[in-house]
Amino acid sequence: VQLQESCPGLVLPWQPLSLTCTVSGGPITRDYFWSWIRQPPGKGLEWMGAMSYSGSAYYNPSLSGRISISRDTSKNQFTLHLNSVSPEDTAVYYCAGSLKLSIDSKDPDDYWGQGTQVTVSS
After folding, report:
1. Which residue from 86, 104, 65 is spatially nearest to 13, judged by alpha carbons?
2. Mean pLDDT of successive 10-residue stretches along the chain, which has 122 residues
3. Which value, in Å, is the radius of gyration of the alpha carbons in the chain?
4. Nearest-angstrom CA–CA distance, 16 and 30
5. Which bin fits 112, alpha (ψ -120 to 50), beta or left (φ > 0)?
6. Among 2, 54, 83, 96, which residue has the least CB neighbours within 10 Å?
7. Distance between CA atoms of 112 and 105, rounded to whole angstroms?
């Protein structure tokens, strides 16, 4: 299984951020959780949220109200939507597939994208 994040690059403050993860080598409807994780500069990994193989969404409470995750099973993609971004949202964003709901480390049993840099700046 391989995962590839889209590359939004620079995002203006207060704008919405959308990141899409394209999964190949297996359907996102298999028995995995499909997560978004980010790593701000100089900090550790932060699990943001996930969508289960059945389509249920789970979010980190610290992002409640700003985050949603959707999917397109016909394209085998899932998408992160983050509203009202600020410079504090600057990070490398990863998508991942795991049997675990919440991910805070790179387990070799999980599938990870290569990551994409998102910078929030005016």
Report:
1. 86
2. 91 96 94 96 97 96 93 97 96 96 91 97 94
3. 13
4. 29
5. beta
6. 54
7. 11
Distance CA 4, CA 78 (A): 11
Helix H or strand E segment including 71: strand 67-72
Contact assessment for residue 10 and residue 116, using Cβ atoms and an 8 Å cutoff: no
Sheet of 67-72, strands arranged across? 2-5, 17-24, 77-82, 67-72
Contact residues for 102 (Cβ-Cβ < 8 A; gap 6+) = 35, 47, 50
What angle is formed at CA 69 by the lines to CA 63 and CA 115, rounded to 5 degrees? 85
**Six token digits for residue 38:** 């980010």
Residue 83 token pair: 């509203």
Report the C-alpha gap between 68 and 17 in whole angstroms. Answer: 11
